Amino acid sequence: MEVATSRLTAERSGPLAGRIKPPGDKSISHRALILGLLSVGTTEITGLLEGEDVIHTAKVCGALGARVERLAPGRWRVEGCGIGSLLQPEETLDFGNSGTGMRLMMGVVAGHPITATLDGDASLRTRPMRRVLDPLMMMGAQTLSQAEGGRCPIILKGTAEPIPIVYKSPVASAQIKSAVLLAGLNSPGETSVIEPEASRDHTEKMLRYFGAALKVEPFGENGRKITLQGRPELKPAPVAVPGDPSSAAFALVAATIVENSDIVIESMMMNPLRTGLLTTLLEMGADIEIIDRREEGGEEVADLRVRGAALKGVDVPAARAPSMIDEYPILAVAASFARGQTRMRGLGELRVKESDRLEAVAAGLRACGVDPQIIGDDLIVEGGAEVSGGGLVATHLDHRIAMSFLILGLAAQKPVAIDDVGMIATSFPDFRAQMESLGARFS
Ligand SMILES: O=C(O)C1=C[C@@H](OP(=O)(O)O)[C@@H](O)[C@H](O)C1
Ligand SMILES: C=C(OP(=O)(O)O)C(=O)O
């Protein structure tokens, strides 16, 4: 089937001004629905991200037996069925564009005596799933069918008695860690995951909040070992979803590169495993004031006042990658406007996101008159105060590529067009309206 695409163009804009509130965090939104499904009783969620990725997860929770209801914008209620009591789904579980939805749900299915077909869009069908299937098969799940290279569509048969394992993950990935822990929820023993570097810890925090016993220990130089006691009785708990730093990133960079801007981003989550972009922009000379740090719904949040600033290039260490993994496309845009060279190290994981983000970012920058280089897994950008723009950027079904290059267009000399706005709705449906409210010019 031919899918209609629509272009959007961003034009050099005057100073951005005003206040915005980023949408609810995507990672936490998926997890709130999933833990709602796995609890017996009613979980109330506020601030849920109503992006397509999360809506797919909500529908899958319904197909596995939960009653999922939207009460008001961002306010959802999940009547869960509890660990061990999921229904055999009748239809294919469709995750759309969402790697998180599919990988976390593979863990849930693997830990239950059900068989499910999991599938997604053309982008998701290119993404590697073996990294999750490998540990799940050690736990006793079986892959009945899969596309070449361990890709979806996948037919996964779970087990009633997941084997407790200690899994040493070769990559720092919150999706792998979460899939194993979610499968371990129905295991009679302890399930441990060792990660080489700390990845986002939302699953661990939310499992504890819902009553599971979980131990987190340092492992090696930068790693962690997370151990979950199986078969807890998860108790429903209200979840207030904080503002998504990965979505706030676009306004943060826009206000930095559009001269004389002065904006406030309200209630952005400040979890240190998610704030790598903030650290890097501050090193580059960005003018960001962190106001009113406070706790909301178990996470630290803050308001950020961001003003236009002249940036300088920096060397971004590979160890920072897990805390800013989805922000490299927009960081590369900031780097294009920075004096000197920015080298972003250790970006191999960017090759297996919604698109090959290393190649997609480099091609987009070239289309806009910037000269990037990829050396091994590093991305190197030679910046300058002026960026010519003027290109048409291919988005490859990738929301972050789409939004990043629209932001570049707001500060470039000539307009920048993207070939398809459609995917922006997966993570940030109000992107255009919010950015326009600050003065961004799109047509
Ligand atoms: O667990 C999560 O919610 C996510 C983990 C990251 O992926 P990896 O686990 O593959 O690094 C990130 O890129 C993704 O957008 C969301
Ligand atoms: C990589 C991303 O998401 P996912 O892996 O869930 O598709 C993202 O949102 O940038």
What would your notes on this structure say?
- The relative contact order is 0.15.
- The chain is built from 12 helices and 25 strands.
- Helix content is 28%, strand content 29%.
- The chain has 2 domains: 8-24 and 242-442, Enolpyruvate transferase domain (UDP-n-acetylglucosamine1-carboxyvinyl-transferase, Chain, Alpha-beta prism), CATH 3.65.10.10; 26-158 and 165-190, UDP-n-acetylglucosamine1-carboxyvinyl-transferase, Chain (Alpha-beta prism).
- Helix 4 (130-138) packs parallel to helix 5.
- Phosphoenolpyruvate binds at residues 98-100, 326, 353-354, 400, 427.
Strand content: 25-35%
| Share of helical residues | 25-40%
Average pLDDT taken over every residue: 97
* Biggest sheet record: 5 strands, mixed
* Total domain count: 2
The end-to-end distance, rounded to whole angstroms, is 27 Å
* Structural classification: alpha/beta
CATH C-level label of the largest domain: Alpha Beta
Quaternary structure annotation: single chain
CATH superfamily of the largest domain: Enolpyruvate transferase domain
Q: Which residues sit in consecutive blocks of at least 5 with pLDDT less than 50?
A: none
Integer-rounded radius of gyration:
21 Å
Number of helices: 12
Query: How many runs of DSSP E, i.e. beta strands?
Result: 25
CATH architecture of the largest domain: Alpha-beta prism
Enzyme class: transferase
Pfam families: EPSP_synthase
Subcellular location: Cytoplasm
GO biological process, one term: chorismate biosynthetic process
